[in-house]
């Protein structure tokens, strides 16, 4: 098995930045791109707050530029996902991909991100692609002229609701409280949009597909009165936060109560040689720019550690290969 100096798991802004920095340090990083190459930003319609791009640019374009930039310095990209990895035995770490390919890596940078949280109500899983969506950019076009609902009261819900008004006839935002979590700018834009209205203090109990031809209604419950009702809609867009993608290492790396990796200020995990950056270790900021900064930090910490331990790591790798 070939010895890699650094394997990066995930290809969102944190992973792509870590790839750029480790590639420029001549470490020939291998990026295991995962099932959503580019991560969440790759399915974001427009990024307006990434410095250096006045007027904004599309998420896919930003991802493409970051990927090309890392490749320019020698980063290798593998379009697959990790099926299992052994971190607890120490460096070199063993990584197996879904198709069976194996890697041995002196260091690992985990940037596996987080996935959209599910409502976990009847009718949700069954109707993904038939009216239930977690991505306005991907699916908005299919809801031209339709009446749709958006679930959630945070920045994502409002940003996506505003975007969806380009296509939909009406957008009802259903929120479980009577106060939005979203910041003032998006709040004002959403509240000033004539296609958007709000249903407060209300949760979705079921997503209904009456005729088996796609979503036809949601069953709502007012959390204050307990009253339930069916609300006709053809599209249910759910933006209620994210869950960290930690399944492959959750029993090896120390996580916080919500499943995010705990790192120190050098982006080190509890395992020497294993670093984490981006949304897998940060549920607070979740910006492209913060992920880029964290990817930079993790890469620089890994570069220093690899330099300091070069001789020892070479011996360990040879011993592992001899077995
Ligand atoms: P979030 O801020 O955690 O908001 C999630 C929303 O979903 C909350 O309003 C929450 O209600 C609601 N919710 C959670 N679980 C629910 C459930 N089971 N049923 C019904 N409602 C539920 O998540 P986010 O909007 O994805 O944002 C994540 C981070 O990204 C934030 O820091 C945000 O500022 C940032 N972000 C920024 C921008 C921007 O600046 N342009 C855009 C998108 C995201 P409660 O309010 O009652 O908890």
Notes on the structure:
The chain has 323 residues and is an alpha/beta fold. It has 2 domains: 2-116 and 242-322, FAD/NAD(P)-binding domain (3-Layer(bba) Sandwich); 125-238, FAD/NAD(P)-binding domain, CATH 3.50.50.60. Helices cover 25% and strands 24% of the residues. The chain has 7 helices and 17 strands. It has helices at residues 13-24, 59-72, 136-139, 155-164, 184-191, 288-308, 310-322, and strands at 3-9, 30-32, 76-78, 82-86, 93-97, 102-110, 114-116, 132-133, 147-151, 170-174, 196-199, 202-208, 217-222, 228-232, 235-238, 242-244, 274-276. Strands 1, 2, 3, 4, 5, 6 and 17 form a 7-stranded mixed sheet that branches. A 5-stranded parallel sheet has the order 8-15-9-10-11, covered by helices on one side. It has a 3-stranded antiparallel sheet with strand order 12-13-14, with no helix packed on it. Strand 5 and strand 6 form a beta hairpin. Helix 1 (13-24) runs parallel beside helix 2. The longest helix has 21 residues, at 288-308. The protein is elongated, with a radius of gyration of 22 Å. The N and C termini lie close together (11 Å). NADP nicotinamide-adenine-dinucleotide phosphate binds at residues 119, 151-157, 159, 176-177, 181, 203, 239-241, 286. The site of NADP nicotinamide-adenine-dinucleotide phosphate has 17 residues, from helix 4.
